[in-house]
Amino acid sequence: MPPLHIVLYQPEIPYNTGSVGRTCVALGAKLWLVRPLGFQIDDRQLRRAGLDYWRRLDWEVVDDWDDLTRKLPSERLWYFTKRGDSGFYEAQFERGDALVFGSESAGLPPSLLEGAEGRRLRIPTSENVRSLNLSVSVALAGFEAFRQMGALP
Q1: Is residue 17 a contact partner of residue 104, using CB atoms and an 8 Å limit?
Q2: Domain count, the chain
């Protein structure tokens, strides 16, 4: 089982997803993509951002949230949202956890965040920034999780 799962809920920008894929390869994490996607999987921009790492990536596309929850081996999901209950560095990550990120334009829908008290995390930024780029957010959270687990490659 991968040490970590990265979930992109309805990602829209191929460059971001390609960069997230590279980060997942660096961490040995599995990438899950929840449809609908804002691009085709064979998109040239996706491949360009993922470079030659994409062929080394452990990844899976699922049709919807229910499909993901049936297939995802982890029951410990951490939801990243600017409306998080606490900073991501306060979470206690464990091997096999899933880090869930929303689309670039809409984030995670309220329906996924309901009932997730204590599992909604934010990445603090100054008031001058609405949010960080999706791929930057995944890298910050992924490497923090690995640091905590003592699992950095």
Answers
A1: no
A2: 1
- Is 102 annotated for ligand binding? yes
Which pTM does this prediction carry? 0.93
126 is an annotated ligand-binding site residue = no
Reading across the β-sheet that carries 98-101, which strands appear in turn?
59-62, 30-34, 5-9, 98-101, 77-80, 120-122, 86-87
H helical segments located in 3-119: 14-27, 44-50, 65-71, 110-113
- The domain containing residue 90 runs over which residues? 5-149
pLDDT digits (tens, 9 = 90+) for 42-71: 756 666 655 577 789 999 999 999 999 999
131 is in an annotated binding site: yes
- SS3 category, 47: helix
Whole-angstrom Cα distance, residue 125 to residue 60?
31
Residue 23 belongs to domain with CATH number? 3.40.1280.10
